[in-house]
Description:
Largest sheet: 6 strands, mixed
CATH architecture of the largest domain: 2-Layer Sandwich
CATH superfamily of the largest domain: Ribonuclease H-like superfamily/Ribonuclease H
Low-confidence stretches: 1-31, 330-341
CATH topology of the largest domain: Nucleotidyltransferase, domain 5
Radius of gyration: 28 Å
Helix content: 40-55%
Mean pLDDT: 85
Distance between the termini: 74 Å
Shape: globular
Strand order of the largest sheet: 3-2-1-4-5-6
Amino acid sequence: MAKRSRQTTLFDAADPLTCPQAASELIVPKKTVAPAPASLAGKRVYVIDGHSLIYQLFHALPELTGPTGEPVGAVYGFARDLLALLEKKQPDYLFCAFDVGKTFRHDLYPAYKANRPEMPEDLALQIEAIGRLLDALGIPAVRCESFEADDILATIARQTEELGGECFLVTGDKDCRQLITDRVKLYNLRKDQVFDREALQQEWGITPEQVIDFQALVGDSTDNVPGVRGVGPKAARDLLRQFGTLEGIYARLEEVAGEKRRQSLAEGRELVFKSRDLVRLNPHVPCPVPWDQAAVGRFDVQRVLDLFRQWGFRGIGRQFEALASRIRPGQPAPAAPPEPSAFHIVDTPEALGALVETLRGQAAICVDLETRSIDPARTAGMVWPRWAEIVGIAVAWNGQEGWYVPVAGPPGQRVLDRAQVLNALRAVLENPAIQKVGQNLKYDMVVLRNYGIELAGVAFDTMVASYLLDAGQRNHNLDDVAQRYLGEGKKSIVHLIGSGKQQKQMDEVDVAKVAEYACRDAVLPLRLRPVLARELAQKRLEPLFTDVEIPLVEVLAELEFNGICIDCGRLAKLSRRLGQQMAALEEEIYQLAGHRFNIGSPKQLQQVLFDELKLPVVSRTQTGPSTDADVLSELAPQHPLPAKILEYRQCAKLKSTYVDALP
């Protein structure tokens, strides 16, 4: 038999010799690969970790079936995410990388990824469908024998950087953090966030150059990478801060604090360097990258629409048609139309008076409040309307200009008195003859009620309209709605206030920056209103929207504002009773198991149920046999322990989520 050369990208999954997992892999025809472009200067390249995204979607989304009964949940999620990426990020090149079976890492360490369960049958069927979708969209599915998708990501990232482009790796795999440079970043689809050097420093306290040493020390139970016993993320960070590298640690091992840690490092020396070899990605996979086939816009529009119809995806079919009409073959999506640059800061009493007079004469206005939390600890970093303080008010009455009235800001910046501003605007806000348009107006209604103002004349809410038109969409925030219906958007609030430990309150941000952000929030709903209204009319949803959904906004706002009364004393008694019941159940569970164990630990429960009691494994997750409620219910007739575990969980859920949390 002739020796086979390594296949790339665009592989023949029907050939079991080049694709041993043909039944559960993508079917994409082979194509000739052209050389890389001479330059990628000014170009944006996105690379999706295919299997990673598909697995996330498969486990996160509810089970969906197409018109003929085939599973399509992961296919729907993948299609939706692809279109969102094309619309929001407008890449010049787009690849989708996939794993193969065994890789060179299995030769280095046979136990590598030994804990991974087999692919569910329902998912295998959907991966084949996703392959057909990628081919119809003209997006190359890239794979290389003996290498993982992460190695392909590393290779494309390296080539992009060498050719002067900017690369975004769409993956949640932490191993890929080693690839971060000034031109290579990770992109989180779920959060619409870029993960760069600064984000890595904030989360792990290390540099990209230290990631492989960090991962080698900590290990990875998912991939069965051993690491060093007893060394967690904090210890690894501290070691690398002190010694720089693995070599630095072992060269000065006697300086490591703690005899136990020194002993663990000494005993794990061989394994930690092997672990580093396992997590180090190869940026030189010996397979050509199909740059010519990755240029965005090579859609087979009719074939894509036929696939969507076959799977029952009507909503995203219309979304794709709108996207395809804006992208010429072989070219990236056009830049979004210019956003309004005219925003005005109203920071004097005279300007406020003039604004109020102008607002009085408008038939419809958009209102948007910028707020801060008055109790961050209570609201867990979010701004809940009942614990919100107004920082500024943005208004607009056309689709081009917005006005921002600041009432709080950083020290030294000019703002107006909050009470005086609200008093001046009251007549406009409470006038039902002036229509109010906005995004999630329920929030603004509750916040204004905190200040004794009843927002009247609510006529159009873009978030409600978006949900009514396509409830299957994951996000209905203003950025996503504007991208879907206008082909434009605005900067995420994360760009303004940051995230995590570095997140600021809105009144800590420069007033001019808040004004620009808030005015766009006020202008975009006015642009969206006629587009969404037309869609509602075409689908005969206008009466439902006008007569049911919009009046319901006011009802829900009142419910949120008033809340409910609870009897704290009675809940305290119930908490004690549930605690006693849980304690009694614990003893019964320990007696049935024959020893004490952590009931809340899935790993320990797996060991008791399946290793010690020899109960049958009903289903599996990525971490082993499942112990969820459905499994325990099925096992209950075979042994009394699963039923007691279910009863214990029910008591714990009631106690922690409701009885103890409500007061």
